[in-house]
Predict the 3D structure of the following.
Amino acid sequence: MMCSKGIHSLIILAAIFCVQSALAQQQAAKPEEKKPAPKTPHEMREEDKAHRDTVVPHLPAGVSRFLDVPYIQDGGEEHQIDIYVPSGTGPFPLVLMIHGGGWDAGDKATAGIDMAMKITPAGIAVASVNYRFLREAPFPAQIEDCLTALNWLRDHAAQYKINPDKIGVLVPLNGTNAKYGDMVVRSLNLAIADWSEAHGDQKISLVIKDSGSDDSTAKQSFDEMVKKDGVLAVVGPLGPKSTKAVASLADQNGVPLLSLAEKEDETQDNPFVLHVFIDSRDLVRTLVRYCREKLKFERFACLYPADRYGPRLSKIFAEVVKEQGGNVIANVSYKEQSTDFNEPLQKLMNIAKKNAPLSATEGTPFEALFIPDGVQSVSLIAPQLPFNNIVGTSLLGTNLWSEAPLVQAGGVYVEQALFATSFYPESKNPRAKAFVEKFQSLYNAPPSYLEAQAYDALTMLLQARSSARGGPADRNAVFQSLVQEKGFKGVAGTYNVSQKGDVERQYTVLQVTNGQLTQVYP
């Protein structure tokens, strides 16, 4: 016979059994949770690179970095190395970092940047190496990779120093755009000659590479200039596409890039990229502000080419006119390479009359017509305006109108036309006059706005190089000196640079008066 205590124990055991059974049934009913798939070698390496790229901007002053450099030319990220070199003339002792992870995890990026932050201020260089994981190659492939990297570092030890006397130039050297590359190079050579004349103790040389017609060529050329030639900075490229292709490389390697391409509205900010070319929005703003404040124009129209350039300028113009308190009452496009403009002009007038106030519908409804196209197109459009009852309106244009003789091409039909530009060869500015005289004596032709801006870009860079606190070989210090530039007086005007690498300048407004171009602003 069982005592009550034993019965209670059986009841408790039975209850526990029931609870356990119920839990077991619930667990069985639950679907198995999927375990996350293990990370691939590429995913692990990309994660570490992301960490590195957030720390790189905080490296000690003067530290040069050469990231993702291949020590075996097989295109694999497992055979890349990151190198960090302290400021100074060297040579420096080197620590070779071999990241942890049991030969099957991790990446060079985190190990390298963390060590560089600690020991480069003491004058010690760091090289952090990637190697094949066990899942990619059996042991001892990992040891072999590290030894190969060490031998590679010995062979290239002298290469990874910055030469402050070398400036990279990335421009098109072949194809249809080669003429623009030649224009930039000859202007840079003049800038060097003028700088050397004033600073005889500073020797400057150019390393000129082809930006090509595709992203891969631009990237390869940039990489070679930085890693093989050790250039201090790079001037160029000329197009937004090429600039975008190399901007990330400039940031990764901490190389100042003075782009001669316009910064587009959607362009991402890059810490080491300085856009020294014309800013269309600022240029149009200068022109519209003059029309509003000096000429008291209120109603505007726009006739633009349906090409890569026209729609963007049309949009900018409409936004700036609104910003300045004016009104764009008609906006019409025409086909590229058109010669007959009657249809788009009639359409422009019809739209303008619908949108204009009653008091302005009897004559031409708008006071100014913006045509963001070249001189050839303008010279065809202007004579067709009177035949479409567009009279008494001022034509407005951009720097494209300075690329050819507007007055000769357009004749009386462009009288009173206005356009803004970054450079006017007939300027009374002493610097501009001296530049034009030297340029013409050397090349038997007047300089264009592209050549003037290339000249200013290199001169500004050389001035920053001279005043850099970390010394002329400190790329970061040179760039910081650039972005702190206020009131730099160049041949194309006065420049002010923001911390984001945006250049503000004063544009010139020219007007056709009595068959002559006259500077009306400033």
